[in-house]
Design goal:
This protein is 42% helix and 20% strand. With 276 residues, the protein is α/β, with parallel strands linked by helices. It folds into two domains: 66 residues, Chemotaxis receptor methyltransferase CheR, N-terminal domain (Chemotaxis Receptor Methyltransferase Cher, domain 1, Orthogonal Bundle), CATH 1.10.155.10; 186 residues, Vaccinia Virus protein VP39 (Rossmann fold, 3-Layer(aba) Sandwich). It starts with 12 loop residues before the first helix and ends with a strand.
């Protein structure tokens, strides 16, 4: 039983610099001094779980050989996972009405990557849109959904959501793609047919080449790069461009910009960019 009281344990500036430097180098997330209190608060849970009495001891443990599992837990603790079904809905209107008709004329298979998929709302939204389009068009498609957080990926694979989470889903889509729980607890689940169309994988966007062999027609990386500094953003966007087929599309968040970056992308619509 864990009897340690770590609620008053303070993280030294030295430990913060060591941890924040690693987090930035390992997964691109910028950790300025203003985030020290946030990091301290989130990692206290890990100190309790490990029965560790100080952040200094935790830091030593994290970086010792064989602590790879704790590195995963640490990254889970510091990542922010905010998402919704049909978030930034204009993107999905453009996808259904303009982009998919164009791609279906030139591509035998439409491959999609949801990068930074969090708990799964984005890739399942994409699956709904692609399924709708496929009903009137003979296309094959595949959806890869990745995140660095093992915790949110497990939630995404379960595909179970509170009823209030599915409010943005249009009612016809709810009837077609969602199942209500039988125990009246207000839970819904994505239908198996739609779940089977999304393949989840843990992936660090800082990995060289992403460990992928095939290229993508569509990449969604929305509201992820806001946590990176500009150099990291430009490096990541360059890797996305190399992963996109010519004529493919990159979707970014409305608070993210590629202006001033030397990239083979042209604007198609607000925060939608076409690979040239």
């Amino acid at each position: 039983m864990n009897n340690l009281n770590v609620s008053t344990t303070i993280m030294s500036d030295k430990v913060f610099r060591r941890l924040s430097g690693f987090i930035h180098g390992h997964c691109g997330i910028k950790m300025p001094p203003a985030k020290k209190q946030m990091l301290e608060g989130r990692l206290r849970k890990r100190l309790r779980a490990l029965n560790v009495s100080s952040f200094e001891s935790y830091c030593d443990y994290v970086f010792k050989t064989g602590a790879e599992t704790e590195l995963i837990h640490m990254i889970d603790a510091v990542t922010t996972n905010k998402t919704d079904f049909f978030r930034e809905p204009a993107h999905f209107d453009y996808l259904l009405e303009n982009i998919l008709p164009e791609l279906s004329r030139s591509m035998e298979k439409i491959s999609v990557w949801s990068a930074g998929c969090s708990s799964g709302e984005e890739p399942y939204t994409i699956a709904m849109i692609l399924s709708e389009f496929a009903q009137g068009n003979k296309i094959n498609f595949s959806i890869l959904a990745t995140d660095i957080s093992a915790r949110v990926l497990e939630q995404a694979r379960r595909a179970i959501y509170d009823h209030d989470r599915i409010e943005p889903v249009p009612i016809p889509f709810r009837k077609k793609y969602l199942l209500r729980g039988k125990d009246d607890q207000g839970l819904v689940r994505i239908k198996p047919e739609l779940r089977s169309q999304v393949h989840f994988r843990r992936l660090n966007l800082m990995d060289a080449g992403f460990g992928m062999s095939g290229k993508m027609c569509l990449i969604f990386c929305r509201n992820v790069m806001i946590y990176f500094d500009r150099d990291t953003q430009e490096e990541l966007l360059g890797k996305f461009c190399r992963q996109l087929v010519p004529g493919g599309y990159l979707f970014t968040g409305h608070s993210e910009t590629i202006q001033g970056m030397d990239l083979p992308l042209v604007p198609f619509a607000p925060t939608i960019h076409k690979r040239v």
